[in-house]
Design goal:
6-stranded mixed sheet; 9 helices
């Protein structure tokens, strides 16, 4: 099971790395989480340099893809070569999640399929210009596509991916692990209520995209 987190130059550290950390809490022997990038060493909006673990091509073939956000997303969607590569993403065979401005990439690729989306306040008008309704909420999912708005909403995307791929109990355990002491039960309750509102009743890990 491979989950790729698309991470570009100018990336938001909270978007990519919070999701990465939570997803790794659900690690099993066949569970792989990778930072995917078109460059070997993407640099964050604050100057943090990290090492990519796989390529965009690898991400396109992954079981699930989380598209992170950053300050260069409007430039990225104008990069015809990159967008051509990303056209291989397909919600019919993989889970797709987009954080903040990552929703703009899904919109430009036509992968939202008429769904509304969540995004950050800066990106909101650009997603609307792409013909997508933007919701005033942190998370929305339908079928194999999910979007989230606000840096800390990346925890909802991670929990959704875990719930879809490993089951609700695994998602609950991952959120319990990372939630602040004294707030763990509240964090789990809030997260699971949000997921339940956006997942088909009784969905189990076996129902995830292949």
């Amino acid at each position: 099971m491979h989950i790729a987190i698309l991470t570009f130059d100018g990336f938001n550290e909270l978007d990519s790395l919070i999701a990465y950390g939570i997803l790794m809490r659900a690690r099993t022997p066949d569970w792989r989480v990778s930072i995917a990038s078109p460059v070997a060493r993407p640099v964050s909006l604050s100057g943090l340099t990290i090492e990519a673990q796989c390529t965009v091509e690898d991400a396109v073939s992954a079981d699930a893809v989380l598209i992170g956000s950053g300050i260069k997303t409007r430039e990225l969607v104008q990069d015809s070569a990159l967008m051509q590569q990303l056209k291989g993403l397909d919600p019919q065979r993989q889970l797709l999640a987009a954080q903040c401005s990552g929703a703009l990439i899904l919109a430009k690729l036509g992968l939202l399929g008429g769904l509304p989306a969540c995004t950050d306040l800066t990106t909101k008008p650009w997603v609307q210009e792409a013909g997508v309704e933007v919701l005033n909420q942190p998370f929305f999912a339908r079928g194999n596509v999910a979007t989230a708005g606000g840096c800390l909403a990346s925890s909802y995307l991670a929990a959704w991916l875990i719930a879809r791929l490993q089951g609700v109990e695994a998602a609950r355990e991952a959120i319990h692990y990372v939630a602040p002491v004294g707030e763990k039960e509240d964090a789990v309750k809030r997260t699971m209520a949000l997921l339940e509102a956006h997942m088909p009743h009784g969905l189990m890990a076996s129902d995830a995209a292949r």
